[in-house]
Amino acid sequence: MGLVLAGGLGEAWFRYLRRHDFQDCAWSPDPEIGFVNHVGPCRIRTSEFDVRYEHDRHGFHDDEVTDPRRPVILALGDSHTWAVGVSKDEAWPNVLERLLAGDPGPAPAVINMGVPGYNLGQEYLLLRRYQHEFRPRAVVLAFSMATDAYDIRPPRYGGFVYGAEYPRTYFDLDGNGELILARGWTTSGERDSASSRLKAFLLERSQLYGAIRRSAAAYYAVRLLRLVGVRAWPNMDGILATRLGPADEHSWRLIEKLLRRFREELDAEGILFTVVVLPYLPQVYDEVWEKAFGGAGFDRFAGNRRLSLICEAARIDCLDLTPEFVARVRATGRYLHFRLDGHANAEGHELIGRRVFEHLRPRLEGGPASVRALGQGAGREDARGGRIAPAP
Q: Which residues pair with 318 in a beta bridge?
């Protein structure tokens, strides 16, 4: 009875604190990709931010490109590119656009094509839809360590993570390990388990659960729940685990095949392609890592090494921002993400945009012939000053 009473009082208190929270940003169904950003304005207001969004006629969180003479760069990604919590001008694609405007010649337009909830397959299909309309000079794909090794799973490995109610075309591997397109919708597998249904219910209905899931106690709970077989942070397990289960291994094989498809098709069109790695909370903040994952079975940079090896083998230009994020946080003590929401804040987006500018600028000056692998695999230094060795 005491626990029930405490839980009820806690729920009432956090509902009071968040009584002004509001959000009306929604998806529109899309028969091919599943869903897209709705066209027009929307707003998200929380205790951490209050942002109004305006989507153009394509559903992009950006201004229309009206000058056909401007070279175009396409920025692909999920909510970490769409930029939850920051304004359009603060989002990293627009930071990149402003920095490029200082160079001689026509200022490139960087189009923010990010869609919250998208996986790599959806980003590929979105690119194919608009590639010939925009004829980009370069494509920058933001690989989010928060979700991109998790939400790529096809239905047979647990169902779609986001927008499960929307039928769509999705990527999978056939019996020979080759990339195929399939179509369907399902919430089968672990998403239909009792724990998954309870988690989904709490995320949707409980303000108390939302408040404590980013707290120090919640980070410790991640480790405790793992002892009884509950994956409280499954999106990060596939990034940080030194030994992967079948579902996570399948995800990484899909990632490799899709990134190769991106590179091959863009190379054929003479379009520069860069993958930018956006780190997530356990990789950036020492206290989060130690509380939630530090210990046997996990490696803070395991996913970075796996992705680096993929980029190196496939000759994909890959910029890993994890060292910069960790170094900045350790030097300043400031968070580069919203503490509760988990997306990058304005300072985080500024860091992303500036580093992408510094990396991309010489490639744009060098032309299509400058497409190259940068060898960021075994030789790259991590944020601790050590060497990032190949993943186990």
A: 275
